[in-house]
């Protein structure tokens, strides 16, 4: 997800407390499990902020394993939630859900541009969306948000664990998706496990750093921005 980080005063502590409680409640509903069967359709979603007060969320649906594009939709709307570090999913999720509702072809699993449980409170945007949609989801992020890892070997396909710095808990995997490029951070969201998230990420690579579902969501976000300007 392409986050807008405006300058300004510290967030309202009451709001932070409320959002923390909501994340804890959502976290209680998380389930990590293999998919019941191989997906036929895989979704990809991404959000960006054309202006400080608006958000554009894109969903693409691809056939799996061919990765042929089946459908692409977007939703453009106002942002009602102020920027609060660590709670960006609350800014994005409502608009992403509006975009999801427009799909004629519902995916079997959703790859989200962002984190799943590789989040300080284990509730990144992929986990957040998975619980709200009750859909299998996992996150593929371009930057680490939390945890520690050893740099993977520079060749495509090398993987290292991402672990909690204090407890050693496995919270994701760090994947070299293309030779000599910065790695991706892959973690399960909801109704998906780490092995599935990693396998699907690798299966969706077609020579680019980003796997096709999130790469195409990002591509179409740029195209759709022209329609809303």
CATH topology: archaeoglobus fulgidus dsm 4304 fold
Q: Report the average pLDDT across residues.
A: 94
Question: How many strands, which pairing sense, and closed or not: the largest β-sheet?
Answer: 8 strands, mixed
Give the strand line-up of the largest sheet. 3-2-1-4-5-8-7-6
Q: How far apart, in Å, are the first and last alpha carbons?
A: 20 Å
Number of strands: 8
CATH superfamily: archaeoglobus fulgidus dsm 4304 superfamily
Radius of gyration: 17 Å
Report the total helices: 5
Question: What's the CATH architecture name?
Answer: 2-Layer Sandwich
Helix/strand class: alpha+beta
β-strand amount = 25-35%
State the domain count: 1
Shape: globular
Could you characterize what this model shows?
By secondary structure, the chain is an alpha+beta fold. The protein has one domain: archaeoglobus fulgidus dsm 4304 superfamily (archaeoglobus fulgidus dsm 4304 fold). An 8-stranded mixed sheet has the order 3-2-1-4-5-8-7-6, with helices on both faces. Strand 1 and strand 2 form a beta hairpin.
């Amino acid at each position: 997800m392409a986050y807008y980080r405006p300058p300004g005063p510290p967030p309202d502590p009451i709001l932070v407390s409320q959002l923390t409680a909501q994340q804890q409640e959502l976290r209680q509903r998380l389930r990590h499990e293999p998919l019941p069967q191989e997906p036929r359709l895989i979704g990809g979603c991404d959000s960006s902020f054309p202006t400080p007060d608006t958000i554009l969320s894109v969903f693409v649906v691809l056939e799996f394993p061919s990765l042929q594009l089946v459908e692409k939709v977007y939703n453009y709307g106002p942002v009602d939630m102020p920027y609060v570090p660590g709670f960006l999913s609350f800014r994005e999720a409502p608009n992403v859900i509006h975009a999801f509702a427009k799909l004629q072809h519902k995916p079997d699993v959703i790859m989200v541009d962002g984190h799943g449980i590789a989040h300080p409170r284990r509730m990144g945007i992929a986990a957040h969306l998975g619980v709200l949609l009750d859909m299998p989801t996992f996150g593929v992020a371009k930057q680490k948000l939390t945890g520690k890892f050893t740099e993977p070997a520079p060749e495509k396909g090398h993987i290292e664990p991402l672990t909690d710095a204090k407890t050693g808990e496995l919270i994701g995997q760090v994947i070299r998706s293309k030779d000599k490029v910065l790695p991706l951070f892959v973690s399960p969201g909801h109704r998906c496990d780490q092995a599935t998230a990693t396998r699907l990420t690798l299966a969706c690579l077609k020579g680019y750093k980003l796997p096709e579902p999130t790469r195409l969501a990002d591509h179409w976000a740029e195209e759709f921005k022209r329609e809303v300007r």
